[in-house]
């Protein structure tokens, strides 16, 4: 079988890397792909990953048996619906399900309707009303979110009125995020530990993947601006069995029930960004796709063939699959960024040393997944803010960190930087075993 992957980031490189190992798969093609996906399959650089017509045509021409859609943007515009209508099995929800990520308001209203725990919130469609509300608040910090898709840049933690009003102006008056900022939510700031929970589902059966801890802020000690994610650690040792049960019973099962009773079909990946608070898990956000860089760690640790699970979700037969095997080793993923990220960043710097990083350790201990890279003849150049993710497996968190940072030291370009504390977040909560 041939599998088509839609997208061009690090998540898609990790998916292509894992899917290409399946005995069921003859070839992985990526639309448009990146230099990393080209090392494990074939790219279709001329196919726009957000053009449903072009993707349906490519899927038919290539006679693919499965399409896996990586990013949220194509899902939110209905690319999965178009592929399904053409009779092509697709891993990824249709436009209706993708609204969970495409509109923060839609998600919050659905959560409240079904009494799924989340922080309290208010919606605003005018900057003046939002600022009046902020004037009277006494509890700080607060969270301000743009309603629409903002490529990971639509969430702001604000610590006082002045900062909050400036963010409201940027989003609603100056439209820094374009149409995504037509409406905003002002939300309660939840205190606890954040965890990324990924669920593969065909709308009926849920397969909970091993949890991952992301590090979203750019600076050590969770400081500085929000990013798409600076690094990951998995498994998550502090997340006990009691908390995992609560996540299933209070959030995931009610969420799937909510989607069913609201008539929203959902086949693909449901990613819950959760805060584990003293009062139990609460939803920060839902995403309609695999996390990035969470996927890089999940693919490294998922030991079984992933294709039957993706196909099972796409075709409604997930209940036929046995639970997958996981590598018990620890995985650390360190994202290497271009100077300036998450603001405007340098581009076009030659990248060296990926092969030297991957030669570290034994076997495939270190694997580098490319994201913002571009091939220019024989040269690999930086072309995005998050350039690549160095992943490593180790028998302990310490060993995985040594290997991942050892790998990252061997990869070089001018202005490259990482966060140095991936996997070291202090644990201040007990979630029961
Ligand atoms: N790493 C966060 C995200 O994928 O949304």
What does this protein structure show overall?
With 433 residues, this protein is of the alpha+beta class. The chain has four domains: 2-95, Rossmann fold (3-Layer(aba) Sandwich), CATH 3.40.50; 126-182, Dna Ligase, domain 1 (2-Layer Sandwich); 193-320, ATP-grasp fold, B domain (D-amino Acid Aminotransferase, Chain A, domain 1, 2-Layer Sandwich); 330-410, Glycinamide Ribonucleotide Synthetase, Chain A, domain 4 (Alpha-Beta Complex), CATH 3.90.600. The chain is 30% helix and 26% strand. It is built from 13 helices and 22 strands. The chain has helices at residues 10-19, 52-61, 72-76, 79-85, 95-102, 104-113, 127-135, 161-173, 241-261, 294-301, 307-315, 354-358, 397-410, and strands spanning 2-7, 27-32, 42-43, 66-69, 90-91, 121-124, 142-146, 155-158, 184-188, 193-201, 206-208, 213-214, 217-219, 223-226, 231-234, 268-277, 280-287, 330-337, 366-370, 373-376, 379-382, 386-394. The strands form six sheets. Strands 3-2-1-4-5 form a five-stranded parallel sheet. Strands 12-15-18-22-19 form a five-stranded antiparallel sheet. It has a four-stranded antiparallel sheet with strand order 6-9-7-8, with helices on both faces. A hairpin with a 4-residue loop joins strand 10 and strand 11. Helix 1 runs parallel beside helix 10 and helix 2 (52-61) crosses helix 4 (79-85). It is globular and about 60 Å long. The protein binds glycine (GLY). The site of glycine has 8 residues, from loops. The site of glycine (GLY) has 8 residues, from loops.
């Amino acid at each position: 079988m041939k599998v088509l992957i839609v997208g061009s980031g690090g998540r898609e490189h990790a998916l292509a890397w894992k899917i290409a190992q399946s005995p069921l798969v003859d070839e992985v093609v990526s639309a448009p792909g990146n230099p990393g996906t080209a090392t494990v399959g074939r790219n279709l650089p001329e196919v726009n990953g957000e053009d449903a017509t072009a993707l349906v045509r490519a899927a038919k021409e290539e006679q693919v048996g499965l399409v896996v859609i990586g990013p949220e943007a194509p899902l939110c515009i209905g690319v999965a619906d178009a592929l399904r209508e053409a009779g092509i099995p697709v891993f990824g929800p249709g436009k209706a399900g993708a609204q969970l990520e495409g509109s923060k308001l839609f998600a919050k209203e659905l959560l409240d309707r079904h009494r799924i725990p989340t922080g309290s919130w208010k919606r605003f469609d005018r900057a003046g009303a939002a600022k009046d509300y902020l004037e009277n608040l006494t509890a700080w910090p607060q969270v301000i979110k743009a309603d629409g898709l903002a490529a990971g840049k639509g969430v702001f933690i604000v610590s006082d009125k002045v900062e909050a009003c400036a963010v409201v102006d940027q989003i609603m008056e100056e439209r820094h995020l374009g149409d995504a900022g037509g409406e905003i939510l002002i939300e309660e700031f939840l205190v606890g530990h954040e965890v990324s929970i990924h669920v593969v589902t065909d709308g009926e059966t849920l397969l909970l993947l091993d949890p991952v801890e992301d590090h979203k802020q750019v600076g050590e000690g969770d400081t500085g601006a929000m990013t798409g994610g600076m690094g990951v650690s998995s498994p998550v040792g502090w997340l006990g069995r009691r908390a995992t049960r609560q996540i299933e019973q209070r959030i995931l099962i009610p969420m799937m029930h909510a989607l069913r009773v609201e008539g929203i079909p959902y086949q693909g990946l449901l990613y819950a960004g959760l805060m584990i608070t003293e009062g139990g898990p609460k939803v920060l956000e839902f995403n309609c796709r695999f996390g990035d860089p969470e996927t890089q760690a999940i693919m490294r640790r998922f030991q079984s063939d992933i294709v039957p699970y993706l196909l099972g979700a796409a075709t409604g037969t997930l209940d036929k699959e046995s639970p997958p095997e996981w590598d018990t080793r620890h995985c650390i993923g360190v994202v290497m960024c271009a100077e300036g990220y998450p603001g405007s960043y340098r581009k076009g710097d030659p990248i060296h040393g990926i092969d030297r990083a991957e030669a570290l350790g034994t076997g495939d201990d270190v694997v580098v997944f490319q994201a913002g890279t571009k091939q220019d003849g024989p040269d690999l150049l930086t072309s995005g803010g998050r350039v690549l993710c160095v992943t490593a497996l180790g028998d302990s968190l310490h060993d995985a960190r040594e290997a991942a940072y050892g790998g990252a030291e061997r990869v070089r370009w001018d202005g490259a930087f990482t966060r140095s504390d991936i996997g070291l977040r202090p644990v201040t909560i007990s979630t029961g075993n």
